[in-house]
Amino acid sequence: MQIYLPIAEVSVNALTLVGLGGLVGLMSGLFGVGGGFLITPLLFFIGIPPPIAVATGANQVVASSVSGVLAHVKRKSVDFRMGGVLLVGGLIGSVLGVLVFNVLQSLGQLDLVVQLCYVVFLGLIGLMMLQESVRSLRRSKSPTYRKRLHQHTWVHRWPLKMKFRASGLYISVFPPLMVGVAVGVLAAIMGVGGGFIMVPAMIYLLGMPTKVVVGTSLFQITFVTAFTTLMHAVSYNTVDIMLAVLLIIGGVIGAQIGTGLGAKLRAEQLRILLALLVLLVCGKLALDLFLTPDDLYAITAGVQ
């Protein structure tokens, strides 16, 4: 069932788009990531221009995140205070990211920079998560290993501390703000929710328990990506409504399924699966970026 996307100016199979949305929604509910790190490269692969893929992919992340966060609210696994601090940083980062996006697009370097960012970030994050997850899984199987209940790091020495009861933390607001800003910038430039950065940061940097990380991550992602999508739509007209609707339909269904599956798996197993998925997408992007294409020359129309 082929349909024509007016903004992207390409014809694609509608069922393929619904399937992609469902896959990303599944990742959202299962891992607590918005899924933009997956949906945007997949849209590249089926021929959607990068500016359209970035802006519309962020729109789909909103729907998947809303569906996932509602399920986590019912299970009381969302730290709303921590989510609020992350959200403030995320909105600031989104404004900065959209400005950078505009500069890169005017210079004609947006496609290259976006793909390079994906390869670098996905590669680093995937390797770090895989290493730490395997180490945690081995420690959990060791009868002689005992995890310390409270581990104080440099984060605990910063000023302006706040108590986050749902996470059991008493730390400075500056580290969560910095994480939020970084995620906001990535959301605007790469069309991602930023969960693949935020989830590891919340676990390993802020020290949040895994049981509230997924829901809190989705809470922040929902508002930051919604704000980012609105800015892209108003400023650059790069959101394809038809494409977004089909992705959203699949995403909402997939997020509910993913949330149910996530409750049945251990935290270490979830992190290993996410790390492997991140590395798989990174490898595919790296091959497409560095291998010689079949057609050395192509004529494309820029997005106005």
TrEMBL record:
InterPro entries: TM_pro_TauE-like, TSUP/Inactive_protease-like. GO terms for cellular component: plasma membrane. The keyword Thylakoid does not apply. Pfam families: TauE. Signal peptide: none annotated. It is a multi-pass membrane protein. It is found in: Cell membrane; Membrane. Keywords: Cell membrane, Membrane, Transmembrane, Transmembrane helix. The chain crosses the membrane at residues 12-40, 52-73, 85-104, 110-130, 188-206, 213-235, 241-263, 270-287. It comes from the Bacteria. Belongs to the 4-toluene sulfonate uptake permease (TSUP) (TC 2.A.102) family. This is Probable membrane transporter protein. It comes from Paracoccus amoyensis. The lineage of its organism: Bacteria, Pseudomonadati, Pseudomonadota, Alphaproteobacteria, Rhodobacterales.
